[in-house]
Amino acid sequence: MSGTREGGCLCGAVRYSAAWPPLATVVCHCKNCQKQAGSALSVVAVLPRDGLTVSGDLTTFQGQGSSGQAVYRKFCGTCGSPVITDTPEAEAQGIIFIKAGTLDDTADLAPTLHYWKRSAQHWFPFPADVDWLDTQ
Questions:
Q1: pTM (2 decimals)?
Q2: Does domain 3-132 correspond to CATH entry 3.90.1590.10?
């Protein structure tokens, strides 16, 4: 069933509406995602760019991915919640990534791919039925 899903930051200053279901739901274990999330991993929903509408102000931190390309990490400047990750390559492909934990309803999320397994925390149990890549 196609529709939309709502989400936003912790304090509510940033809200969004996303086309649903996502094109993919993936887990990233790279060191940059771990640091940005303050956790062992980051779960992102991959959406068509034109399927995302955001209200409120996002602050952008520009980092660099392992390929050298820019990575734009967009977060609420008030509460610090990470909301969106974007790259020039994603823009060229017409996609964008939302942090899945910012969705109001996460009950049906089912990641099917894990990136950067080689950077994963040693204690993380990879599900047997989910694909993974050593890098990206």
A1: 0.91
A2: yes
